[in-house]
Write a structure and sequence with these properties.
Blueprint lengths: L1 E5 L2 E3 L5 E8 L8 E6 L5 E7 L5 E2 L8 E6 L4 E6 L8 E8 L4 E3 L3 E5 L2
Parallel strand pairs: 2-11
Antiparallel strand pairs: 1-3, 3-8, 4-5, 4-9, 5-6, 7-8, 9-10, 9-11
Length: about 110
């Protein structure tokens, strides 16, 4: 299993970014996937989950601003982030929970600052 995130960067408050997670090594459309983030010195915070049946869930901190989606043909997971705030600054990771284990990407840095 391999998960490779991209799309992070520096953006001003109120701006947008789209993160991409390219997946391989498992039956992509079978499993739910998600995104989580981590600030140095703090724990991992879940930010979006997309179930195999296409249901989505978000914590209140990002609801209405973040949208998770997937392309089962391209085997890619996305996170559209709008109206970004400084508190969204973190390393963002995509993950998948398969029958055998959970897998994580290497992360991509998102920095929101004026």
């Amino acid at each position: 299993v391999q998960l490779v995130e991209s799309g992070g960067g520096f953006v001003q408050p109120g701006g947008s970014l789209r993160l991409t997670c390219a997946a391989s090594g498992f039956a992509f459309s079978t499993f739910g996937m998600g995104w989580a983030r981590q600030v140095p010195g703090k724990g991992l915070e879940w930010v979006a989950e997309l179930y195999a049946n296409t249901d989505t869930v978000y914590p209140d901190s990002v609801k209405g601003r973040f949208t998770i989606s997937r392309d089962n043909v391209e085997k890619t997971l996305y996170l559209q982030m709008n109206n970004l705030k400084p508190e969204d600054t973190a390393v963002y990771y995509c993950y998948v929970g398969t029958w055998s284990d959970d897998y994580w990407g290497q992360g991509t840095q998102v920095t929101v600052s004026s």
